[in-house]
Amino acid sequence: MEDKLRALQTEALEKIESVQNLKELNDIRVAYLGKKGPVTEILKGMGKLSAEERPKMGALANEVRGSIKEKIESKQEKLEREAVQKKLESETIDVTLPGRPVRKGSHHPLTKMVEEIEDLFIGMGYTIAEGPEVEKDYYNFEALNLPKGHPARDMQDSFYITEDILLRTHTSPVQARTMEGKNGKGPIKIICPGKVYRRDTDDATHSHQFTQIEGLVVDENIRMSDLKGTLQVFAKKMFGEDREIRLRPSFFPFTEPSVEMDISCKMCGGKGCNVCKKTGWIEILGAGMVHPNVLEMAGYDSKKYTGFAFGMGPERIAMLKYGIDDIRHFYTNDVRFLTQFGIQE
Ligand code: PHE
């Protein structure tokens, strides 16, 4: 019996020594120390032993068990330590490696331009109003003194969705909506930035989708001189204090009188060059006094209230300000373009 126990001990200790992982080790634990294991099996023969030998064998069996248990425990500790070590090694961070450059994003030049214009008018006491891009014919045209069949509708070739719904061709419907919402009372001082759509063939100066900023002021005693003063402040702040403005008579169905505003050419100082087509002036925006019909349709008493409105294209402003020669650059999103002009963050 003694030999059997010793042989078992040697076998178990050898097996434990060569074990590679915790699972195998656990299998050995179950096999050798479990209730149905070989030690228990051998001890069943104890009954045949003499009274003298019995305690000796009992002690030996305990010793064998103890040594196997101890060996398993120390092996387990070793395997666990190795596993932690391996994990640490595989997760080592080399802090001396050079960092990967992170490219900083920036706002789109057009967004920056719109925000710059917004800030300028917010500084003059305006608030921002927005409206839907999918618009009713009523607000886009009719409420702006452009009834169905009016020839001036041809000035803005439109994408119709149904007979009465279209993609707005300008941001002026926001002024119609805002006026209507006031129920004929109280002053208005808003700018309306947003996307607009026209059935134009895209080229260097035309895009079927572009941006507009509309301005509207309605109150008692609003005069043409208020419009001129406002536009003058805008032009000088935007393009430089040395720039002059001029208003030329024009036509828009929703304003009367209507004007177009030019600024003096920076290139030639007004003498005439290629940039200003030899005129000394560059066209910037359309404007005028709100047509009495438009005020009345929105519920305002046009004898009491007057107003002015203006509309401009931020793309055109940015093109002039930064010397951009093609409107399509704003939409093709070439990063080489987007990160220029000193207007990235
Ligand atoms: N909505 C006009 C356009 O898109 C611009 C404009 C706005 C003109 C307000 C006058 C007053 O052509």
From TrEMBL:
The keyword Cytoplasm applies. It is found in: Cytoplasm. Mg(2+) binds at residue 256. Residues 111-340 form the Aminoacyl-transfer RNA synthetases class-II family profile domain. It holds the Pfam family tRNA-synt_2d. Keywords: Aminoacyl-tRNA synthetase, ATP-binding, Cytoplasm, Ligase, Magnesium, Metal-binding, Nucleotide-binding, Protein biosynthesis. InterPro entries: aa-tRNA-synth_II (IPR006195), aa-tRNA-synth_II/BPL/LPL (IPR045864), Phe-tRNA-synth_IIc_asu (IPR004529), Phe-tRNA_ligase_II_N (IPR004188), Phe_tRNA_ligase_alpha1_bac (IPR022911), Phenylalanyl-tRNA_Synthase (IPR002319), tRNA-bd_arm (IPR010978). Tetramer of two alpha and two beta subunits. Belongs to the class-II aminoacyl-tRNA synthetase family. Phe-tRNA synthetase alpha subunit type 1 subfamily. HAMAP family: Phe_tRNA_synth_alpha1. This is Phenylalanine--tRNA ligase alpha subunit. It comes from Bacillus seohaeanensis. The lineage of its organism: Bacteria, Bacillati, Bacillota, Bacilli, Bacillales. The gene is pheS.
